[in-house]
Write a structure and sequence with these properties.
Layout (H helix, E strand, L loop, with lengths): L1 E3 L2 E3 L3 E3 L10 E5 L5 E5 L13 E2 L16 E6 L1 H10 L11 H5 L6 E6 L10 E3 L6 H10 L1 H6 L1 E10 L6 E5 L1 E3 L2 E3 L18 E6 L1 E9 L8
Parallel strand pairs: 6-14
Antiparallel strand pairs: 1-2, 3-7, 4-5, 8-10, 9-15, 10-15, 11-14, 12-13
């Protein structure tokens, strides 16, 4: 988390000095089974997750405290930092551990997630979300300042089970092989499940969690950890 002109900037927000790698650095490689897979031309070990899905590259602008610095690009999420917060259950705003509430509030344990309003929620069905968890004190601020939450409203979910992959895995951009290399057709925000063959030519930008045991809560009734 950082501040710009007294405005809190979430950890996952892209800064203006952070640029995505050129599309020209993407290509296709043929693997041992004879099938092609999307790849960075100078691919490194951390470019893929444990399911061998390729991730988008965006450089990072870090200050002396090793936290993101610079003016924000509101509405844009840094792929690596989104992935980090999802994997480690860190707050999307300040990078703090969001499982503190589980330990310090045993009467209402769980990890807090914000979900866009407008869809029916039942505890019998899982909620799949790319939103990283968030601490209570930042959630109250987010619901008043986030453009998307402001337009559509929000639902606060206190989750007790939040498995990492479940049936669904990542959000990103599909690519197609052409005579000149690869191209990216129109994309959407629909999660693509792991083991889906489309992921061989997919550039991931957001990791999805599945909430299966949760309750809808009022943020005003929650006490910050």
């Amino acid at each position: 988390m950082s501040t710009t002109a007294h405005t809190v900037v979430p950890y996952i927000t892209i800064r203006r000095t952070e640029q995505a790698e050129s599309f020209l650095m993407l290509g296709a490689r043929t693997e041992d089974d004879g099938r092609s897979r999307l790849a960075h031309l100078d691919e490194e070990r951390d470019d893929r997750d444990l399911h061998r899905v390729l991730w988008a590259r965006v450089c990072q602008s870090l200050g002396p405290d090793l936290l993101p610095s610079g003016d924000p690009q509101w509405g844009l999420v840094h792929p690596s930092r989104q992935r980090e917060t999802r994997l480690r259950l860190r707050c999307q705003v300040c990078w703090a551990n969001t499982e503190d509430h589980r330990r310090e509030a045993p009467a209402r344990p769980g990890v807090l997630f914000l979900h866009t309003a407008g869809s029916d929620l039942t505890q019998a069905q899982p909620v799949r979300t790319w939103q990283p968890p968030i601490r209570v004190e930042h959630a109250r601020l987010a619901v008043t300042r986030c453009p998307a939450l402001g337009r559509k409203g929000h639902v606060a979910l206190l989750a007790r089970r939040y498995r990492l992959y479940g049936l669904y895995g990542v959000i990103g951009t599909p690519h197609e092989r052409t005579l000149d290399g690869v191209r990216a057709p129109a994309s959407n925000d629909i999660p693509v499940p792991y083991r889906d063959p489309r992921l061989r030519r997919f550039l991931a930008s957001q990791l999805v969690r599945e909430l299966t045991d949760f309750g809808v809560v009022n943020l005003e009734e929650l006490t910050p950890a």
